[in-house]
Amino acid sequence: MKKIIVTGGAGFIGSNFIYYVVNHHPKVYITVLDKLTYAGNYANLAKLPKDRVKLVVGDIADAKLVDSLVKDADTVVHYAAESHNDNSLKSPFPFVQTNLLGTYTLIEACRKYDTRFHHVSTDEVYGDLPLREDLPEKGTGVGEKFTDKTPYNPSSPYSATKAGSDLLVKAWVRSFGLRATISNCSNNYGPYQHIEKFIPRQITNILSGIRPKLYGDGKNVRDWIHTNDHSSGVWTILTKGRIGETYLIGADGEVDNKTVLALILELMGEAPDAFDHVNDRAGHDLRYAIDSTKLREELGWTPQFTNFRNGLKATIDWYENNRPWWEAEKKAVEDNYAKNGQ
Ligand code: NAD
Ligand code: TDX
Known about the structure:
Blueprint: E1 3-7, H1 12-24, E2 29-34, E3 53-57, H2 63-70, E4 75-78, H3 85-90, H4 93-113, E5 116-122, H5 157-176, E6 180-185, E7 188-189, H6 198-207, E8 213-215, E9 221-223, E10 225-226, H7 227-240, E11 246-249, E12 254-256, H8 257-267, E13 276-278, H9 293-299, H10 308-321, H11 323-339
Parallel strand pairs: 1-2, 1-4, 2-3, 4-5, 5-6, 6-11, 7-10, 8-13
Antiparallel strand pairs: 9-12
Helix pairs in contact: 1-7, 2-4, 4-5, 6-8, 6-10
The protein binds nicotinamide-adenine-dinucleotide (NAD) and thymidine-5'-diphospho-beta-D-xylose.
């Protein structure tokens, strides 16, 4: 693997993956294909060496452009997506366009040139799990986490279009011999995450003198993984994964939203009750949890950044030290949430 295309490389997880590759794999050259939507930011790539990372601004659903780039690449790593559940509830069409048509356009080009393809997906395709306290088989491990055998059952337009894109890739593998793998990862956190998302929203609220906002009762559980561990997981699958296989990436980081918020408040020196309960998300998934045994045992991957408290502290420091990266957008993001009572 020498020449790779990273779609969505100017977004949160894609840009962290590019830093990971540049720092760990000196012979790899990267072309980023990114439309620079509201979630893509050229600044995310600014510190990277220009001789190794080239940005092409364009749409993954632009077949002509995609063909011209895929022709010269060994591998495509596909991160580009519309990624925010709340946006998908207000305006689903961009999710259909990018997540479904965009993925279709990429796999058609990879089929044509027999290019290795890795599809980055999410645990949300499996729907949600009951809270642990409500499980009849509590403590036995049965049915407690997602595996690659869990049936698809997405809840939102976002997760439905991600599920559809996974199914397209699986069909292209089976019917056309596409050399593809899929990863479904849990909730990422770390630097460069857009301030619409839960953790950066609460951090930047506090930094802006706005009270944090918790949806509903805050009992919903997410399985947090540091984005650097997601990057090493994707690299492991790219280099060692079996074609046609799906690997789940997770670091055993289940925490409910109320507890995450309590930790942010504590680390930022705020009172434990200095937040507001706001309107819940429609169709809000209750709990996600990943069983990553297959990735760990078959490919030997181990997450390294598993101390959530330390990771959260470093993330808070990053937003505090990079105010120009987010400050100009803050008011518009909050005005938008306020329209929904959130
Ligand atoms: P993000 O919204 O921060 O970044 C998405 C990037 O894709 C942006 O740079 C945007 O400009 C680009 N993009 C959007 N539409 C495009 C198009 N039509 N053509 C080209 N580029 C386009 O998203 P993220 O949180 O970094 O997520 C990246 C990927 O990882 C997504 O596929 C998402 O489903 C998946 N994922 C995310 C998480 C998470 O916790 N954020 C967890 C598991 C999987
Ligand atoms: O202000 C908020 N308050 C709040 O309580 C926001 C923005 C969110 N929440 C809750 C909703 C979720 O239970 O926090 C949890 C996390 O919310 P998001 O950051 O929006 O993430 P989520 O919906 O879980 O999806 C994320 O993980 C899986 C990513 O956005 C997806 O792209 C990924 O696929």
